[in-house]
Amino acid sequence: MRRPLVRDSLTWLLYLQLTCFALFLYGFGPSVLHLARDLGVPDVTAALHGTAFALGFLVAGVAGARLAALLGRDRLQWSALTLLSAATLLYVLGPAMPWTLTAAFLGGCAGMTVISVTTAALADHHGPRAATAISEANGMGVGVGLIAPLLVGGAALVGLDWRVGLVAVPFLVVGLRLAFRGVRLPDVRPGPVVRHSLEERGPGPGVFSAASRMPWRYWPAWAVVVTAGTIEMCMAIWVAEQLRQNTGLSRGAATMAFTLLLIGMTVGRLLGARLTQHLSADRLLMGSLLLNLGAFALLWLSTAPAPALIGVALCGLGMALQFPLAAGRAVDASAGRPDQAMARSGIGQGVASGLGPVALGVLAGSAGMRTAFLLVPALLGLAALMAAVRTR
What we know:
With 392 residues, this protein is an all-alpha fold.
């Protein structure tokens, strides 16, 4: 019988630290097209904010494992959250696109660092229950993060400044620092590579060897992490525009409708945390990809708001477990190197998530949003192929 997940103060701190980034991320995505109106630039140009954000992911992925080993997870995590707060303020106050692009880049650097540290620390701290903890952390993040697009879209709908959806991030970071000042994340120390799975090694401190290579079975899991992150980024930036063009919703209403995607993701991740105790991660991952594909078909084919909105919510339900399960599989296949596994995933996500939304925007400019949006099921198909490869 599997032992239950025990949530201590370290677990809750990690959950809430990830929530800080989720609040930024889910406000940032739907805010990009509102920012385009303010700056007077085309939508496809504004989508470069997604590229800058993804470039930050890439940089953090390259440096993340080394920084975790050098600084320790605790110092690195709080530094990243401080940077995230500064990036948020620069994004909402920046008077021109160079400032807001810089803010997006810094937000990506900070966000990937928070994701990597949180995932690796939860994997070490909870061992065989890591998949459940990672799913819960992501579920809580999305659940709180859905407040941001509601505020962004609601403010735009009633003629207020959409920026109110993002300003809570620095206050939340300060509040966490004060509330959890006695809790420290365990540091990463260099050491020999332990070549057995996450389930086998149980909870304990992570190990890191910069010179070692990942086993071959890590790379299919890596590919699923990368495609899952790219799908989330494409949906975050463009689903509101797809709804607006295909169903006739106003820009503010379409932005608020993005919240349905996050509600679906919240429900999926919280339910998924329970399902991981009874079903294998491989089976759940494949099921989530197939559900996402069917939900996308409903969204893409619908020209009336009601079925399209149902499709959005079901897309969120399908997307919910893709990243946490894929991240857990990648960590498990990394031969005992969770920080390095997440750092390399960050490199891939940085490249793919930067190219994905821009490619979708360019296609939308030439072939229309409806045709361009078919990039999403193409990515889902690739993820399904890679998920079918056994990583154990």
